[in-house]
UniProtKB/TrEMBL annotation, chains A, B:
This is TetR/AcrR family transcriptional regulator. Residues 7-67 form the HTH tetR-type domain. InterPro entries: Homeodomain-like_sf, HTH-type_TetR-like_transc_reg, HTH_TetR, Tet_transcr_reg_TetR-rel_C_sf. The keyword DNA-binding applies. Keywords: DNA-binding. PANTHER family: HTH-TYPE TRANSCRIPTIONAL REGULATOR RUTR, POSSIBLE TRANSCRIPTIONAL REGULATORY PROTEIN (PROBABLY TETR-FAMILY). Residues 30-49 bind DNA. The keyword DNA-binding applies. Gene3D superfamilies: Homeodomain-like, Tetracycline Repressor, domain 2.
Amino acid sequence: MKKGGEPAPKTRLLRAAAALLAESNGEPVSTRQITQAARVTAPTLYHHFGDKEGLFDAVVAEGFSEYLDAERNLSASGQPIEDLRMHWDNHVQFGLDHPHLYLVMFGNIRPERRPSMVASAEAFLEEVLARAAAAARLVVSPHEAARSMLAANVGVTLMLIAEPAAKRNLELSAMTREAVISAVATDSEGDPTTDTEGTPSVVVAAIALNAALQSSHPDQLSSSELKLFLEWLQRISTRSGS
Amino acid sequence: MKKGGEPAPKTRLLRAAAALLAESNGEPVSTRQITQAARVTAPTLYHHFGDKEGLFDAVVAEGFSEYLDAERNLSASGQPIEDLRMHWDNHVQFGLDHPHLYLVMFGNIRPERRPSMVASAEAFLEEVLARAAAAARLVVSPHEAARSMLAANVGVTLMLIAEPAAKRNLELSAMTREAVISAVATDSEGDPTTDTEGTPSVVVAAIALNAALQSSHPDQLSSSELKLFLEWLQRISTRSGS
DNA sequence: TAGCACCTATAGCAGCGTTATATGAAGTGG
DNA sequence: CCACTTCATATAACGCTGCTATAGGTGCTA
């Protein structure tokens, strides 16, 4: 197709648009800036992409296919639930790495005219969830699960993007991720052979019990026993690893 | 201040902007449309609001205070968890009722310059959650819980707005809502004022923890401690009255 | 050489947000 | 009743935007 000499105008337009979109921090980028940076005049842009939005869609599509590729090379772990976590984190990371692209993809939501890749992201997630369902780990349909997970994932990512990079706290992501996953999937007991860290479920259960005990003291334990019990429970509830 | 005769230009601008924003389905609304609809010329707009965005902020602020008022008149149920559900649903409903406003508020997220009401929405939710925490129903700090809930809430609402109104399935909202709430709060099998027993949930939690501990032994407890802990757990798991 | 696609450039339109400047109206002190 | 400030509105225009009607190369196939 092309030697290394100089990319075709179409490519230059794509790169210039991507670069300017990345630099100018969320503010709109004009077609004139883009065409000038690509050393090209306006009609060239419209000849190749028909539209400013067409160009942006193309830019997004490029970044998005890169994202999807990364996802595809990700999900071979064999543990469906762990795959879900990885995809969630990958989604968030993609949003933080390419906030401009991400906002175009998910922030600019208009009924109709919404980038088709949102749908394909949903489809892909649904595929991963179907595998989880096949392993009898899902408690709802993959379709519903995918929508719920994607919605929460987008919400979290938008919120993280919105706040200054310094103050970002990924705990928000991890917490919401676990919330949605645990609502959608069974808590994957069962297969400890390969599982080195089943701790999350223990922690969750410990927290639950701890909370339950706050409102009702069981009479099966003496008060001194209960005191020590609660102390241990507290210790378990504080996850050490991860 | 004003008779019923005719509103002041400032008011007319606000109303015209709100109306046009509502009608024109997500497409941008120009200042010229607005000023013309308000039977006013451009400088009047800039005199009163300084900016197009200033005008839009004012419009959003109006709708948002209405929303916040509705929320405030809502949260007197006395049951913190049920309050959370109501606020979640109210949030979603507001988004579906005023999608244009909603998108300006939560969709247009740019670092800096983001409408201050997002912060106040978060603060308000945190307030509700603080009440839940006071009732010992929270398993995380109200701050974190508020951020997580709001993120998921926004994500769900955006997704619902994005899809055609006919196809909207509020199940997505309910499902995600329960997921986040149950991750953030204890499941508080209703113990209203009368019944302070609540043993079932304790038993259930104990059983869950017991089960979880079977597959993964925490390293926070020594083996002898764990032995006694499990014994007590076993005792708690056995209902006294059976 | 002619014809034909394809790609790019010149020049310009209508619309946008915004503003420098000027005019009107309304209250206040002399 | 007049000067005076103060606020609110209007005229006209600037620089920018996305976009395009039209025309001019360029390289291929015949």
